[in-house]
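Postdoc handover notes: sequence design on the structure in folder B. Input tokens:
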């Protein structure tokens, strides 16, 4: 099929499927861009989402933020404007039509300069208080995302075109239905910006005991205002956010650094091994070592399948 006959989405499917030949999450030579392929749905998995634009070109996905569920597919995009610990699950995928997606990290430090160039804009309230939103993919945003993917085959053009495409993507998001949230996240002393500072502190000091009044003081907010706006943006209280950070890091330590459950729990701030095990099982559905054993077996099976596919190719 020629380029003239293909729709933008068909071309995006072709590029991602060709470059991501095996299942998994694949970083690319384009800074901030990763592509993803999975041939089956899977058990929900914990993840740490950074400010980013995620576009599914084939398949569908569920993302659980606190107690709120976001569902999006090939006609939508997921915009994340602040670091958020979530559960994600690929809900539509098959060997014949694998889940294919792209994720482009948003460099929030580039937004203020773009806002200066845009000048004064009519005041608008955010379409949602959440730091994560789903919206219908527009033709303009889809076109910019396609041109970003094309850079994977046009290495020589990347130094010139990447900054222009990145700026256009930021512009499309800023003037879109959730642009007000991005604006507020980068506006000094706005409440969303203050919550961003609180999140940054929690990420850096997640293993420390958390005193809410100290955190509120650090970001120049009252305790009640911190609670209200933190939950509005993250769908969690600061304590719940810290707990998710701790449990996700403990899981990483057990999987990647092969720490036992006791050492991992202690390293992320738990003094009680029994409390760590209870909260881990409540969060991940299984006690630590049973969960880690299952994940390791799944990884072994996945690697074996990839080696088989590569040898056949």
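Designed sequence:
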């Amino acid at each position: 099929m020629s380029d003239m006959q293909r729709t933008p989405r068909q071309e995006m499917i072709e590029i991602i499927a060709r470059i991501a030949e095996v299942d998994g999450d694949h970083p690319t030579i384009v800074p901030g861009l990763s592509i993803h392929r999975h041939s089956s749905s899977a058990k929900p998995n914990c993840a740490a989402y950074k400010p980013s634009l995620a576009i599914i070109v084939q398949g569908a996905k569920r993302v659980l933020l606190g107690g709120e569920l976001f569902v999006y597919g090939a006609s939508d995009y997921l915009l994340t404007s602040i670091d958020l610990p979530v559960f994600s699950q690929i809900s539509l995928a098959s060997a014949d039509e694998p889940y294919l997606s792209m994720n482009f990290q948003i460099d929030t430090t580039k937004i203020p300069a773009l806002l200066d160039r845009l000048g004064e804009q009519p005041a608008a309230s955010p379409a949602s208080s959440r730091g994560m939103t789903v919206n219908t993919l527009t033709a303009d945003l889809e076109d910019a995302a396609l041109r970003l993917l094309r850079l994977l085959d046009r290495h020589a053009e990347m130094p010139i075109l990447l900054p222009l495409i990145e700026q256009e993507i930021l512009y499309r998001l800023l003037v879109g239905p959730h642009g007000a949230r991005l604006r507020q996240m980068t506006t000094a002393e706005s409440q969303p910006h203050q919550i961003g500072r609180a999140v940054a502190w929690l990420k850096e000091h997640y293993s420390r005991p958390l005193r809410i009044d100290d955190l509120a003081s650090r970001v120049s907010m009252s305790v009640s205002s911190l609670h209200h706006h933190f939950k509005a943006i993250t769908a969690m209280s600061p304590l719940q956010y810290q707990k998710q950070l701790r449990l996700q890091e403990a899981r990483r330590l057990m999987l990647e650094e092969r720490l036992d459950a006791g050492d991992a729990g202690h390293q992320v701030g738990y003094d009680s091994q029994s409390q760590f095990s209870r909260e881990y099982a409540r969060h991940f559905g299984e006690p630590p070592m049973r969960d880690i054993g299952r994940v390791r077996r799944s990884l072994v099976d996945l690697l074996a399948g990839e080696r088989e596919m590569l040898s056949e190719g």
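Context for whoever picks this up: The chain has a mean pLDDT of 88. Don't rerun without checking with the PI first.
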